[in-house]
Design a protein that fits this description.
It is built from eleven helices and 13 strands. By secondary structure, the chain is α/β, with parallel strands linked by helices. The protein folds into two domains: about 170 residues, Thiolase/Chalcone synthase (Peroxisomal Thiolase, Chain A, domain 1), CATH 3.40.47.10; about 150 residues, Thiolase/Chalcone synthase (Peroxisomal Thiolase, Chain A, domain 1, 3-Layer(aba) Sandwich). The protein has a five-stranded mixed β-sheet with strand order 1-7-6-4-5, with helices on both faces. A four-stranded mixed β-sheet has the order 8-13-12-11, sandwiched between helices. Helix 8 packs parallel to helix 9. The longest helix has 22 residues. The mean pLDDT is about 95. It binds acetyl coenzyme *A. Acetyl coenzyme *A binds next to helix 2, helix 6, helix 8 and strand 12. The site of acetyl coenzyme *A has 24 residues, from helix 2, helix 6, helix 8 and strand 12.
Length: about 325
């Protein structure tokens, strides 16, 4: 997918809840260990959203942080796309709730559900709206409160995830050479059962049995997801690099979805990327689903690892299965 007109990311904002849940905290409630979690996943701690607050609250905070770091006034947002698998509720959309909380008088917006690929899919959607001229200032938010849908008794899943939100602003490019370059996306629904939340939708509406059977929590076949993610992160990255004639050595940074350090390191090794070309921050936050990539972008900016003109590769694989890679030249 190549845009009709040059489009750039003009800013990044983020939000992380205060409360930290460390591996040592988990050792107290689960048959697990800091050593196991760290070795198998690379995660040390994650953030947990306090009760009474929801995904929309994190999204609002991330947008406020975006406004603080740019000249964006919330009332200038003419499209708001919220990527999440943990909406406040099935409807109204989280985008509507965020719009109301921000007090933006008139804007348009909607939610996008693509699990860990939510952010890259929403980014491509925003790019399409701006490059077609239909919208000028699109805010994309990746926000997930995974703590609300993981089973605290299931050590296979609950050690992996955390809560957080990241937001970006998409606008027409100021310098046409520093812009979104291309995106490659693919879905494979045959992997649906390998990672899902079985109940609470139209197939199995909530009832006493679904609650008793713990079907409102994430269920995962970790090894199938691991194998698919490992293969596809590399394949989709190679595909977008090759068709744009960009060598891995030309990348300033690969910003991958943060699910497991072994998936990221394996992909980076096979692409011949050096450690300094790869952003790895899941140790502090775990897998925040739609939020990992903007949170990693934010960390890269704070560490001065992103400069104008740098070529960046985003790569993600998630439930569905969903697959997505994005190539862009950083604009500021
Ligand atoms: N603490 C201690 N032991 C554990 C834990 C835990 N938290 N979780 C599982 N184990 C045990 C298992 O029960 C198993 O024991 P057994 O051999 O007695 O049966 C043993 O550890 C090994 O389990 P495996 O599943 O083989 O462990 P593996 O090395 O594959 O790691 C993991 C599991 C981390 C879930 C891995 O498969 C993974 O990361 N998969 C990808 C999942 C993922 O990232 N999903 C997120 C969303 S999708 C995405 O973002 C790509």
């Amino acid at each position: 997918m190549r845009p009709l007109c040059p489009v750039q990311i003009s800013g990044v904002g983020s939000y992380l809840p205060e409360q930290r849940l460390t591996n040592h905290d988990l050792e107290r409630t689960l048959d697990t260990s800091d050593e196991w979690i760290l070795q198998r996943t690379g995660i040390s701690e994650r953030r947990v959203l306090e009760s009474g607050r929801a995904t929309s609250d994190m999204a609002v905070e991330a947008i406020r942080s975006l406004c603080d770091s740019t000249s964006l006034d919330p009332s200038d947002i003419d499209l708001l796309i919220v990527a999440s698998v943990t909406p406040d509720m099935l409807f109204p959309s989280t985008a509507c709730l965020v719009q109301s909380k921000l007090g933006i008088p008139s804007t348009w917006g909607f939610d996008l559900s693509a699990a860990c690929c939510g952010f890259v899919y929403a980014l491509s959607t925003g790019v399409a709206f701006v490059s077609s001229g239909m919208r000028r200032k699109v805010v994309v938010v990746g926000a997930d409160a995974m703590s609300r849908i993981i089973d605290p008794k299931d050590r296979n899943t609950c050690v992996l995830f955390g809560d957080g939100a990241g937001a970006i602003l998409i606008e027409p490019a100021v310098q046409p050479e520093n812009c979104f370059i291309d995106a490659f996306h693919e879905i494979d629904g045959s992997g649906g059962d390998s990672l899902c939340m079985p109940a609470g939708g139209s197939l199995q509406p909530a009832n006493a049995k679904t609650v008793k059977d713990r079907l409102h929590f994430v269920k995962q076949d970790g090894s199938t997801v691991f194998k698919f993610a490992t293969r596809k992160m590399e394949e989709a990255s190679r595909r977008i690099l090759e068709r744009n004639k960009i060598a891995p050595s030309e990348l300033k940074l690969m910003i991958p979805h943060q699910a497991n350090a072994r998936i990221i390191r394996g992909t980076a090794e096979r692409l011949n990327l050096r450690n300094d070309q790869v952003v790895l921050n899941l140790g502090n936050y775990g897998n925040t689903t739609a939020a990992t990539i903007p949170l990693a972008m934010q960390d890269a900016l704070l560490e001065a690892r992103l400069q104008k003109g740098d070529i960046i590769l985003l790569a993600s694989v998630g439930a569905g299965f969903t697959v997505g890679t994005t190539l862009l030249r950083w604009a500021y």
